[in-house]
Amino acid sequence: MSGLIAQNIRKIRANIPEDIRLVAVTKTVSPAAMREAYEAGIRDFGENRLQEALPKQQELQDLTDVSWHFIGHIQTNKARKVIEHFDWIHSVDSLKLAQRLNSLAKELSCQPKVCLQVKLLKDPNKYGWEVQNLWADLPKLELCHHINIQGLMTILPLGLSQAEVLATFTATKQLAQEIKQKYSHLPMSELSMGMSGDYLLAIQAGATMIRLGQIIFGVRKI
Predict the structure, then answer these.
(1) What is the domain-level CATH number for residue 130?
(2) Residue 198 belongs to some domain of the structure
(3) What HEC string does the chain produce?
(4) N or C: which end of the chain has fewer CB within 10 A?
């Protein structure tokens, strides 16, 4: 593995704009491998599971310039720990969760950066707002002044063609722009979309953050 992670990161960097935030998804990845990624320039790490992330954060606490991104589903009873330990929360997928995070952020005197997780295509295996439900909840979301709503996050269903992938990512960007027009104080400048198999299409459609795991670290060990 030595050197391969750095080589993979160099290849990715060569193919993406400099201003794209590359979030290395480290589910099941060892702290040693994460250090290799850090040494190759990675400063953003994305974790799906709180119980796996916290020991890694403890072991890597000397890496003081790292930003930690939570990208997995959040149970409301674990929301406090997520706010306490993560700089970014990509997976705010319901009004109930947003309001819980807002309440905790007020209590903890912090303002986490968050993305609202949306699904433009029906997918029973994914969390997130369907578009009409998001529009219905936005008046209440804009009252959540203690979380910093930065934009949208999406994960696409499996089995789409490249044209369908590009169209769905493009529609996600359009949705963010429409929200910004109606709710001008919500920045909506961040689009967290694109994983190892489709990140180039996501960038083409306007992604600002891509979440890459296997293409950096190899096939995940379940």
Answers:
(1) 3.20.20.10
(2) yes
(3) CCCHHHHHHHHHHHCCCCCCEEEEECCCCCHHHHHHHHHCCCCEEEECCHHHHHHHHHHCCCCCCCEEEECCCCCHHHHHHHHHHCCEEEEECCHHHHHHHHHHHHHHCCCCEEEEEECCCCCCCCCCECHHHHHHHHHHHCCCCCCEEEEEEECCCCCCCHHHHHHHHHHHHHHHHHHHHHCCCCCCCEEECCCCCCHHHHHHHCCCEEEECHHHHCCCCC
(4) C
CA pair distance 94, 128, nearest whole angstrom: 6
First CA to last CA distance, the chain: 18
| Residue 174 · residue 180 · CB < 8 Å | no
Residue 143 in domain: yes
Domain count, the chain: 1
- 103: tokens are 């309440």
Q: Is the predicted pLDDT of residue 54 greater than 80, yes or no?
A: yes
- For residue 103, the enclosing domain spans 48-207
The pLDDT tens digits for 103-147 are 999 999 999 999 999 999 999 889 999 999 999 999 999 999 999
pLDDT per position as a tens digit, 72-95 = 999 989 999 999 999 999 999 999
